[in-house]
Amino acid sequence: MRLLIIRHGDPDYKNDTLTEKGWREARLLAERLCKMNIKDFYVSPLGRAQATASCTLEQMNRTAATHEWLREFAPSIKRPDVADGRAIAWDWLPRDWTGEACFYDRDQWQAHPAMEEGNVGREYQWIADSFDKLLAEHGYIREGGIYRVENPNHDTLAFFCHFGVECVLLSHLMNLSPMVLWHHTAAAPTSVTTIYTEERREGVGIFRMSSFGDISHLYAASEEPSFSARFCETYDDSRRHD
Description:
The protein is an alpha/beta fold. The chain is built from 8 helices and 12 strands. The strands form 3 sheets. The chain has an 8-stranded mixed β-sheet with strand order 5-4-10-1-11-12-9-8. It has a two-stranded antiparallel sheet with strand order 2-3. The longest helix has 18 residues, at 120-137.
Protein backbone atom coordinates (compact mmCIF):
# COMPACT_ATOMS: atom_id res chain seq x y z
CA MET A 1 0.00 0.00 0.00
CA ARG A 2 1.10 3.55 -0.63
CA LEU A 3 0.20 6.66 1.36
CA LEU A 4 0.41 10.22 0.02
CA ILE A 5 0.43 12.89 2.72
CA ILE A 6 -0.20 16.25 1.08
CA ARG A 7 0.08 19.67 2.68
CA HIS A 8 -2.45 22.34 1.67
CA GLY A 9 -1.52 25.17 -0.69
CA ASP A 10 -0.13 28.56 0.30
CA PRO A 11 -2.52 29.56 3.09
CA ASP A 12 -4.67 32.56 3.74
CA TYR A 13 -4.89 31.77 7.46
CA LYS A 14 -7.15 34.71 8.28
CA ASN A 15 -9.91 33.41 6.01
CA ASP A 16 -8.91 29.73 6.22
CA THR A 17 -8.58 29.34 2.50
CA LEU A 18 -5.81 29.72 -0.10
CA THR A 19 -4.01 32.76 -1.42
CA GLU A 20 -3.98 33.38 -5.16
CA LYS A 21 -0.61 31.61 -5.23
CA GLY A 22 -2.06 28.75 -3.20
CA TRP A 23 -4.76 28.20 -5.81
CA ARG A 24 -2.11 28.07 -8.55
CA GLU A 25 -0.19 25.52 -6.51
CA ALA A 26 -3.33 23.44 -5.95
CA ARG A 27 -4.10 23.35 -9.67
CA LEU A 28 -0.55 22.24 -10.46
CA LEU A 29 -0.83 19.57 -7.78
CA ALA A 30 -4.08 18.36 -9.34
CA GLU A 31 -2.36 17.91 -12.70
CA ARG A 32 0.14 15.66 -10.97
CA LEU A 33 -2.31 13.62 -8.90
CA CYS A 34 -4.84 13.08 -11.67
CA LYS A 35 -2.26 10.91 -13.44
CA MET A 36 -2.14 8.54 -10.48
CA ASN A 37 -4.42 5.65 -9.60
CA ILE A 38 -5.62 6.81 -6.18
CA LYS A 39 -8.12 4.56 -4.47
CA ASP A 40 -9.39 6.83 -1.71
CA PHE A 41 -9.07 10.47 -0.69
CA TYR A 42 -9.16 11.83 2.86
CA VAL A 43 -9.16 15.49 3.83
CA SER A 44 -8.98 17.76 6.86
CA PRO A 45 -12.15 19.74 7.64
CA LEU A 46 -10.26 23.04 7.56
CA GLY A 47 -10.90 25.32 4.61
CA ARG A 48 -7.35 25.52 3.26
CA ALA A 49 -7.10 21.73 3.01
CA GLN A 50 -10.60 21.42 1.55
CA ALA A 51 -9.77 24.07 -1.07
CA THR A 52 -6.54 22.32 -2.02
CA ALA A 53 -8.27 18.96 -2.38
CA SER A 54 -11.11 20.47 -4.42
CA CYS A 55 -8.89 21.07 -7.45
CA THR A 56 -7.87 17.41 -7.63
CA LEU A 57 -11.31 16.05 -6.80
CA GLU A 58 -13.03 18.18 -9.45
CA GLN A 59 -10.50 17.25 -12.10
CA MET A 60 -10.82 13.53 -11.31
CA ASN A 61 -14.59 13.65 -10.64
CA ARG A 62 -14.04 12.11 -7.21
CA THR A 63 -15.09 12.75 -3.62
CA ALA A 64 -13.15 12.64 -0.36
CA ALA A 65 -13.97 11.59 3.19
CA THR A 66 -13.49 14.42 5.69
CA HIS A 67 -11.92 13.42 9.03
CA GLU A 68 -11.66 15.71 12.04
CA TRP A 69 -8.38 14.10 13.15
CA LEU A 70 -6.68 15.37 9.97
CA ARG A 71 -7.13 19.00 11.08
CA GLU A 72 -4.02 20.91 12.10
CA PHE A 73 -2.51 19.64 15.36
CA ALA A 74 -4.51 21.72 17.80
CA PRO A 75 -3.16 21.68 21.41
CA SER A 76 -1.66 24.83 22.89
CA ILE A 77 0.90 25.05 25.69
CA LYS A 78 2.56 27.58 27.96
CA ARG A 79 5.77 27.80 25.94
CA PRO A 80 8.83 28.81 28.01
CA ASP A 81 9.49 32.01 26.05
CA VAL A 82 5.86 33.16 25.91
CA ALA A 83 5.33 35.02 29.18
CA ASP A 84 1.74 36.18 28.81
CA GLY A 85 0.03 33.65 26.60
CA ARG A 86 -0.06 30.29 24.95
CA ALA A 87 1.47 28.91 21.76
CA ILE A 88 0.94 25.88 19.56
CA ALA A 89 2.48 22.78 21.10
CA TRP A 90 4.87 22.05 18.28
CA ASP A 91 6.52 25.43 17.72
CA TRP A 92 9.39 25.90 20.20
CA LEU A 93 12.58 27.94 19.99
CA PRO A 94 15.53 25.60 19.41
CA ARG A 95 17.28 26.66 22.62
CA ASP A 96 14.24 25.63 24.67
CA TRP A 97 13.65 22.11 23.41
CA THR A 98 16.99 20.72 22.23
CA GLY A 99 18.35 20.61 25.77
CA GLU A 100 15.53 18.36 26.95
CA ALA A 101 16.45 14.70 26.39
CA CYS A 102 12.82 13.61 26.71
CA PHE A 103 11.93 15.37 23.46
CA TYR A 104 14.04 12.91 21.47
CA ASP A 105 12.28 9.89 23.00
CA ARG A 106 9.27 8.47 21.16
CA ASP A 107 7.43 7.81 24.44
CA GLN A 108 8.72 10.47 26.84
CA TRP A 109 8.39 13.63 24.72
CA GLN A 110 4.76 14.07 25.78
CA ALA A 111 5.63 13.71 29.48
CA HIS A 112 7.34 17.11 29.56
CA PRO A 113 5.41 19.36 32.01
CA ALA A 114 4.42 21.82 29.28
CA MET A 115 3.05 18.99 27.12
CA GLU A 116 1.21 17.39 30.03
CA GLU A 117 -0.40 20.71 30.98
CA GLY A 118 -1.69 21.11 27.44
CA ASN A 119 -2.97 17.50 27.14
CA VAL A 120 -0.80 17.16 24.06
CA GLY A 121 -0.33 13.41 24.49
CA ARG A 122 -4.07 12.83 24.53
CA GLU A 123 -4.49 14.68 21.21
CA TYR A 124 -1.59 12.78 19.70
CA GLN A 125 -3.05 9.43 20.75
CA TRP A 126 -6.46 10.31 19.33
CA ILE A 127 -4.88 11.02 15.95
CA ALA A 128 -2.72 7.87 16.07
CA ASP A 129 -5.67 5.67 17.00
CA SER A 130 -7.87 7.21 14.30
CA PHE A 131 -5.14 6.75 11.70
CA ASP A 132 -4.62 3.13 12.72
CA LYS A 133 -8.35 2.47 12.51
CA LEU A 134 -8.36 3.70 8.93
CA LEU A 135 -5.26 1.67 8.03
CA ALA A 136 -6.91 -1.41 9.55
CA GLU A 137 -9.87 -0.90 7.22
CA HIS A 138 -7.37 -1.20 4.38
CA GLY A 139 -5.82 -4.38 5.75
CA TYR A 140 -2.93 -3.21 7.96
CA ILE A 141 -3.37 -3.82 11.71
CA ARG A 142 -1.07 -2.07 14.18
CA GLU A 143 0.68 -4.42 16.61
CA GLY A 144 3.33 -2.67 18.67
CA GLY A 145 5.67 -0.85 16.30
CA ILE A 146 4.75 -2.86 13.18
CA TYR A 147 1.63 -3.83 11.25
CA ARG A 148 0.03 -7.22 10.78
CA VAL A 149 -0.93 -7.54 7.12
CA GLU A 150 -4.37 -9.06 6.70
CA ASN A 151 -5.00 -7.74 3.19
CA PRO A 152 -1.78 -7.03 1.29
CA ASN A 153 -2.48 -4.58 -1.51
CA HIS A 154 -1.07 -1.93 -3.83
CA ASP A 155 -3.75 0.67 -3.12
CA THR A 156 -2.84 4.36 -2.96
CA LEU A 157 -4.48 6.59 -0.34
CA ALA A 158 -4.20 10.38 -0.43
CA PHE A 159 -4.45 12.59 2.67
CA PHE A 160 -4.85 16.38 2.34
CA CYS A 161 -3.87 17.95 5.63
CA HIS A 162 -1.36 20.23 7.42
CA PHE A 163 2.31 20.29 8.35
CA GLY A 164 1.86 19.79 12.10
CA VAL A 165 -0.43 16.79 11.77
CA GLU A 166 1.67 15.38 8.91
CA CYS A 167 4.58 15.13 11.35
CA VAL A 168 2.31 13.39 13.86
CA LEU A 169 1.30 10.79 11.27
CA LEU A 170 4.89 10.21 10.19
CA SER A 171 6.16 9.96 13.75
CA HIS A 172 3.54 7.32 14.51
CA LEU A 173 4.36 5.28 11.41
CA MET A 174 8.11 5.51 12.03
CA ASN A 175 8.04 5.25 15.85
CA LEU A 176 9.75 8.62 16.35
CA SER A 177 9.21 11.64 18.56
CA PRO A 178 7.27 14.21 16.52
CA MET A 179 9.42 16.98 18.03
CA VAL A 180 12.31 15.95 15.78
CA LEU A 181 10.11 16.13 12.67
CA TRP A 182 8.36 19.35 13.67
CA HIS A 183 11.68 21.15 14.04
CA HIS A 184 14.01 19.51 11.52
CA THR A 185 11.72 19.21 8.49
CA ALA A 186 9.72 21.73 6.47
CA ALA A 187 7.01 20.61 4.07
CA ALA A 188 6.22 23.37 1.56
CA PRO A 189 2.61 24.03 0.54
CA THR A 190 1.20 21.32 -1.79
CA SER A 191 4.22 19.12 -1.08
CA VAL A 192 3.69 15.37 -1.35
CA THR A 193 5.23 12.90 1.07
CA THR A 194 5.17 9.28 -0.12
CA ILE A 195 5.22 6.24 2.17
CA TYR A 196 5.20 2.63 1.02
CA THR A 197 4.56 -0.55 2.94
CA GLU A 198 7.26 -3.23 3.06
CA GLU A 199 6.44 -6.87 3.77
CA ARG A 200 9.82 -8.63 3.95
CA ARG A 201 8.24 -11.47 5.90
CA GLU A 202 4.74 -12.63 5.04
CA GLY A 203 2.15 -10.91 7.18
CA VAL A 204 4.58 -8.46 8.79
CA GLY A 205 4.44 -4.91 7.46
CA ILE A 206 6.25 -1.65 8.10
CA PHE A 207 5.90 1.77 6.51
CA ARG A 208 8.91 3.33 4.79
CA MET A 209 9.15 6.89 3.47
CA SER A 210 10.52 7.14 -0.06
CA SER A 211 10.20 10.93 -0.42
CA PHE A 212 9.39 13.82 1.89
CA GLY A 213 7.85 17.13 0.90
CA ASP A 214 8.22 16.65 -2.86
CA ILE A 215 7.27 19.75 -4.88
CA SER A 216 8.46 18.66 -8.32
CA HIS A 217 5.06 19.65 -9.75
CA LEU A 218 5.85 23.27 -8.84
CA TYR A 219 9.34 23.24 -10.27
CA ALA A 220 8.07 21.63 -13.49
CA ALA A 221 5.81 24.66 -13.97
CA SER A 222 8.45 27.20 -12.85
CA GLU A 223 6.32 28.04 -9.81
CA GLU A 224 8.46 29.10 -6.87
CA PRO A 225 7.61 27.22 -3.65
CA SER A 226 5.93 29.18 -0.90
CA PHE A 227 7.93 30.22 2.15
CA SER A 228 5.19 29.04 4.50
CA ALA A 229 6.40 26.48 7.10
CA ARG A 230 9.89 27.96 7.15
CA PHE A 231 11.58 30.60 9.29
CA CYS A 232 14.27 33.09 8.28
CA GLU A 233 17.39 31.48 6.83
CA THR A 234 19.60 34.11 8.46
CA TYR A 235 18.66 36.48 11.27
CA ASP A 236 19.10 39.58 9.09
CA ASP A 237 16.49 38.14 6.72
CA SER A 238 13.24 40.09 7.14
CA ARG A 239 11.11 37.00 6.60
CA ARG A 240 9.46 35.37 9.62
CA HIS A 241 11.54 35.19 12.77
CA ASP A 242 8.76 33.85 14.99
